[in-house]
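Our consortium's second objective concerns turning raw sequence data into structural hypotheses that experimental partners can test. To show how far this objective has progressed, the report includes one record in full. It was chosen at random from the queue rather than selected for favorable results. The single chain below, 320 residues long, was entered without modification.
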Amino acid sequence: MQALVMGGTEFISKNVAKYLISKRYSVDIFTRGVKPLTYQGVNAHITGDRLNIEDLRQGLNNKKYDFIFDMSAYTLAHVQNLLAVLDKTTIKRYVFCSSGAVYTPTTSLIDEAAERGENPNWGDYGLNKKEAEDYLFNLYKTSGFPIVIFRPTYVYGEENNLYREAFLFDRLLAELPIAIPDGTHTETQFLHIEDLVKIFERAAHTATAIGQAYNITHPERINWNLLLETAASIVNKRAKIVPATPAMLKMLNITARDFFPFRDVTYLLSIDKLEKSELPIPQVNLKQGLLRAYHWYAIVKPRLSDPKIDKLSLLLANLS
């Protein structure tokens, strides 16, 4: 089984590639060549800029793949350029990692038939993913090209390069206060990386998934207090939670992302369609997933940061 993973050196794409290798796929990866390859078993590490069609041609010329796992496409051009170069005659499945950010804002549970469009909470990211989805849906309808689209919520777990779980662990272990948005009834959902890779791989061999889009998440509803208290119980520290009221945020002219690693918006996806499919259902709940993430964190001791979290000190000074 010949597979191409677009990406392969960062969190999600790396774990997809590693899982495919463990399942005895012959895996090529395509990256910009910025990050080193830190695992074994890759058949070929192809480097280039996927927005540069000549880079794609040079790297993928005469290559034939059974399966494409596109983890690094964020715009329509990313998808169009790749498919202009690939030999599509041998492709049995094109698995596209989209996002729940494609849906318009709502506090309701969102199913796959919900309206997709502009969402100011996610900006161009969601709109760009939607454009790529629309192109792929049209390709399927006009030529039968075997796409499967997945829309995850927040993905977390071992090797996460985004400063999310590690932000919580850093501050809890240092016994530092953690400001959280307060004054709303925000709920969100999380998806552990192990569940994601298993679902993606199974989609490559599930005929009924062709042409479909699926929400994927663990159905557990999480609020910020529960997230902090769960993380605190894992590291055996008391969480010093400091609520940041809407009035304080308005006075300081800051948003949740200026002091917290998540957007303060309700983000809930229905997985009824996934549950009725032949694909796996996410099994790793928040406590299990954070425990696994912490074991990795304690061994690796990652040094991560988030430049968007630049008003935390200002907020805490005013709250105190």
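The partners drew two points from this record. The first helix runs from residue 11 to 22. The mean pLDDT is 96. Both points have been shared with the crystallography group to help prioritize constructs.
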